[in-house]
Design goal:
single chain, alpha+beta, seven-stranded mixed sheet
Length: 294
């Protein structure tokens, strides 16, 4: 993220009044929201029509509509919109836990444990999580404001679940990497030594096998954190994550795909390109103390 984008984030972070409204369970009144309506056709070929911008239909603010051209018909496929009701199921932690499919993941863990024994790998060690939240999802920015995305299929960075022995990631499948060691370096910094990555699947976790994970808590209220993955021969990776228990503090952007999945690359059109490393440097230098600096 460039310096100008960082300044934009500072200017557009939710004010104390808006912050209280979002966390208070109120339905957003679009008639009182000031914005410029805009519709841009970003794709119109023989297969698809995509309209992007910000426009209101049925008292809901939309950012994108996609139509598929099939059998001489134009079929509505994708709607991406601002969730108007903060009592929505999407604000419930159980919704995100169901997305993770923990029962299926436990079955995979038993299979992975068996395979580890066959390959004569060491059993998983137990580490302390120091009361860190265990379920995490990524946080995004649009026009300088933080949002949670409810994806039609998967989001990136992937949804994470921590146990006392492994880090599980849900993308198009379930991947995991073992945890070998943990330390609480300060009240806002946690370190985990990563172990072996199991061979089922291939994700960013594979790159950081036997590497390090540092979790920097940058907002005490929401526990929003920057996850820093390190390995000596790899580029350091930074992910901005929040616990699922903190979703109610943020606005939600929902992606519904009725006929055909919408890709992550297309969703990138909606969000700012955030330099999470630069954001972490602002926190370390004291320029930012929480997500809601004005």
């Amino acid at each position: 993220m460039t310096t100008s984008v960082l300044k934009k984030i500072t200017l557009f972070f939710v004010s104390a009044t808006a912050y209280a409204m979002i966390s208070g369970g109120c339905k957003e009144n679009l008639s009182q929201t000031s914005f410029v309506e805009k519709r841009d056709t970003i794709l119109n070929d023989e297969h698809r029509l995509i309209v992007c911008g910000q426009f209101v239909e049925n008292d809901t603010l939309f950012f994108l509509q996609e139509y598929l051209k099939k059998w001489k018909d134009t079929l509505h496929n994708v709607s991406i919109y601002l969730e108007p009701d903060s009592n929505s199921i999407y604000y419930k932690p159980d919704f995100w836990l169901m997305r993770f499919d923990e029962e299926y993941c436990e079955e995979q863990m038993l299979q992975w444990q068996s395979n580890r024994e066959k390959r004569l790998l060491s059993t998983w060690e137990k580490v302390s999580l120091f009361n860190l939240p265990i379920d995490w999802i990524p946080l995004h920015y649009r026009n300088g404001e933080p949002y949670v995305l409810v994806p039609c299929e998967v989001d990136y960075p992937w949804q994470i679940h921590l146990t006392d022995s492994v880090l599980k990631a849900k993308g198009f499948g379930h991947d995991l990497i073992s945890l070998r060691k943990s330390e609480r370096l300060s009240p806002t910094l946690y370190h985990f030594r990563l172990g072996n990555y199991d061979e089922f699947g291939h994700s960013f976790l594979h790159t950081y096998e036997n590497g390090e994970l540092y979790i920097h808590v940058i907002d005490q209220l929401t526990k929003a954190s920057i996850w820093e993955y390190r390995k000596s021969d790899k580029e350091t990776l930074y992910h901005l994550m929040i616990p699922i228990q903190s979703i109610s503090y943020f606005k939600l952007i929902v992606c519904n795909a009725m006929l055909q999945k919408f890709t992550h690359n297309e969703l990138d059109l909606l969000f700012d390109e955030v330099d999470v490393k630069a954001l972490l440097e602002e926190v370390k230098s004291g320029k930012r103390t929480n997500l809601f600096n004005n």
